Amino acid sequence: MKEKLDRLSEAFVLAELGDPLALKDLRRCLDELLPEAPEPRFAEAVAALARRIDGLLSGRDAEPARSWEAVEKGIHELLELAAAGGPAEAPPVPREFDAEILGGFVLEAREHLDAADVQLLALESDASNLDAIHFLFRAFHTIKGAAGCLDLAAMQALAHETENLLEVARRGGIAMVDRAIDVVFEAVDAMKRLTDDVEASLKSGAIRPADQGLDELIVRIRETVAPNEDGRAGQVPASPLPPARGADKEPLHSEEDPPSSVPDSSRRSRETVSVKESVRVDADRLDRLVDLIGELVIAESMVSQSNDLRSLSPGGVLSKSVTQLDKITRELQEMGMSLRMVPVRPLFQKMARLARDLSRKLGKPVEFATSGEEIEIDKTIVNCVADALVHILRNALDHGIEKDAADRRRAGKPAAGRVELRALHREGCIVIEVQDDGRGLDPEAIVAKAVEKGIVRKGEGLSEQDIFKLIFLPGFSTAAAVTELSGRGVGLDVARTSVEALRGRIEVQSRRGQGTTFRLRLPLTLAIIDGMVIRAGRERYVVPTLSITRLVRPGPGQRATLMDREEMLSLQDELVPLFRLGHLLEVSETADDAGSQVAVVVEDGGRRAALMADEVLGQQQIVIKSLGMDLEGVPGISGGVILPDGQVGLILDVNGLLEHRAAAGSRA
Predict the structure, then answer these.
(1) Which of 22, 33, 444, 543 is the most exposed place for a label (fewest CB within 10 A)?
(2) Region 639-663: what's the mean pLDDT?
(3) What are phi and psi of 68, to 5 degrees?
(4) What is the 8-class DSSP label of residue 545?
């Protein structure tokens, strides 16, 4: 129950009035809650909320804004009711099939459907792509067979009707354009929802209500396949596709009759590709394995750097064995971390589908391109960064790309807009960029809106980067009207919050009339970081290497006091705020002699500062440990680490430190 309530709350936070996809997601969350209602009053509240959202979806609601407020109030009431009464256990539902079999079906169905999205996008660019049609046919045929064996009637029926349409397309009876490809896209989406229903039923033991729109979709599929007045089915292409020879098990093409739509280079690459055997592993087991490897690394460091071992002769047997153990442990650590890494390709494929749908909804032709899909990143980061990319893509297509093709031509641009999503390695981190060739950000309009909202004062001197940062503030938007996709000033705020929660940062570059680039800098993994170990007094801290720009031992005349209050450090004619870690973190016995101290210059979100420490102890890879609920959320601290001597050090959150120091300065 708690997980479903959390999902409902999250769906509402991400939703915008008028966005049908978000409203449908809210509706599905309510459907998940209904079977687990702990009392009649809770069930009535869920039903009332569902009616409100149905009214908003249908467009019959005369006062949508007021209804949206009622939805927010209703969700709060549900949370209060759940907290007061406590969730009741869902009644068990007899299962004829083993849960493991159904779980395997869910995983395989999702793989087929994600791949189907990719093939549909390829087919939309080239309607004669026979390979894509064959792949789609086999995907739905496979799902239909498995669903039939598991008595999943709705999935079997939808897969069967879609398979019929694709069979006609395989034999050249209908072109996969316009209505035909649209209904297959809808079928994929519906199959994904039905797959989610199977998984939800497995977890809760309750059967979810049937999808009310499924019958309508099946009717539209049948109408697309139905013969026209001239006796032929649908739209016949000018150059009919060659019929497939044999059943769904035939090869995609043969050596004596290769399809002209497949280039020779593609055929050669397929001949040399070898299929690697893979094994599915439970995610919890994998995480536990990685945690144990981290513990092993810490234990090995404590042994190898112990005073007892150092007192032994360096060429002894024990010393050589420990050196070999260190080598094996490091290799095991790298292998363990690689198990958490997944390519960004599936994420990029989902964004390609989103861009396609938004382009059609907005009536803006857009060319969507990707690069760097083979780059790998921690699976946890992939899951969390998806929300940020959704909001950034919405912003790029709704606000960035010009709506009028004539305006683009006058500016020397092609009629169709271009959005590129790319991933690359840079400076020890993963960088994901979303670039559009649209109108770009208007600094004057941003400043004017900020002045109107009282965020900045009129005439206040702001750099271009300071102006661009304003678009990430909660509720900030320069849109003249609220649309189905944006205009409430919520999206980019959510994107920034999501990225910063991953210890990353988001940057913006824009040129008016030429386009905008959003750049997400993310760590490779959330489990290990490269850090610089420093000492302040008797305490040791770790500063993430990505945040450090330079180390400086301040000389005479480099330190100054601003307005008798704030210390500054002079770096090449630039004054940088100087924070003494001993004072900032209330550490005793910090050296007073600044000449023997080291300034660690850090940067976050364009802000620079110098952290004064007593000593820099060196750089090393750090296995991050949670500090527990009691210390969670402490400003300036993001986690803990067990150092090689067994002592605990704290990982500094540079952004949190700067924010905390700024808040303290404003109060003073």
Answers:
(1) 444
(2) 76
(3) -65, -40
(4) G
